[in-house]
Design goal:
The structure holds two protein chains of two kinds. Chain A is built from no helices and eleven strands. By secondary structure, chain A is mainly β. In chain A, the strands form two sheets. In chain A, strands 2, 4, 5, 6, 9, 10 and 11 form a seven-stranded mixed β-sheet that branches. In chain A, strand 4 and strand 5 form a beta hairpin. Chain A is globular and about 40 Å long. The termini of chain A are far apart. The radius of gyration of chain B is 13 Å and the shape is globular. In chain B, a hairpin with a 2-residue loop joins strand 9 and strand 10. Chain B is mainly beta. Chains A and B meet through strand 5, strand 9 and strand 10 of A and strand 6, strand 7, strand 11 and strand 12 of B.
């Protein structure tokens, strides 16, 4: 069964850093772009970042550009999100998700989602 | 960025009744070269991760019950649940993928049982 499992969340002070990981099982993500999407407490979904299937390009929401870095290791079937200079407004559940289009050059829709990992930025 | 506006914010419907959720985009998400609408719908049940229901505005994801119907084109879209079931209680989101890389979601519509 296709599954994505995130880890690495936790409580961090403003200005701090965290690295999230997302491991895929039951599916090979190397032929698909991958996303990070977050949901702040009581809020809606917000797209955060996308990386192409081959890692050749990354895209970011303006709210995280210059602070977050998405990367992937296809040999490990794993996606990462390095989060630096964290702010209170980054507090959210972070989901990784597989793009629904095979070898898509751009981000499209997300057809497989992880269970999420919680990031809390607080002093 | 394209702004996605959903209505209503919430609704309560009796079991077996029809549910209609609207999603309006601030600009067209219809790509003329392939005549596809770059719009998806997701369901988020309490305490769960999002689930893809519909993509390309009207294509149902594998395994999604046929009571979920996506329709619309251009700037106006609708998700219809033809006969509400108890397990459909959730928040529903539309998402455009026309203007990349800035994917945007609607604000969500909460569906409850009356």
């Amino acid at each position: 069964q296709a599954q994505l499992v995130e880890s690495g969340g936790g409580v961090v002070q403003p200005g701090g850093s965290l690295r999230l990981s997302c491991v895929a099982s039951g599916l090979t993500v190397s032929s698909h772009g991958m996303h990070w999407v977050r949901q702040a407490p009581g809020k809606g979904l917000e797209w955060v970042a996308f990386i192409r299937y081959d890692g050749s390009n990354e895209d970011y929401a303006d709210s995280v550009k210059g602070r977050f870095t998405i990367s992937r290791d296809n040999s490990k079937n794993t996606l990462y999100l390095q989060m630096n200079s964290l702010r209170a407004e980054d507090t959210a559940v972070y989901f990784c998700a597989k793009d629904g289009v095979l070898t898509g050059w751009e981000p499209y829709y997300m057809d497989v989602w992880g269970t999420g990992t919680t990031v809390t930025v607080s002093s | 960025d394209i702004v996605m506006t959903q209505s209503p914010d919430a609704l309560a419907v009796s079991l077996g009744e029809r549910v209609t959720i609207n999603c309006k985009s601030s600009q067209s998400v219809l790509y003329s070269s392939n005549n596809k609408n770059f719009l998806a719908w997701y369901q988020v049940k309490p305490g769960q991760s999002p689930k893809l229901l519909i993509y390309w505005a009207s294509t149902r994801e594998s395994g999604v019950p046929d009571r979920f119907i996506g329709s619309g084109s251009g700037t106006d879209f609708t998700l219809t649940i033809s006969s509400l079931q108890a397990e459909d209680v959730a928040v529903y989101y539309c998402q455009q993928y026309y203007t990349t890389p800035s994917l945007t979601f609607g604000g969500g519509t909460k569906v409850e049982i009356k």
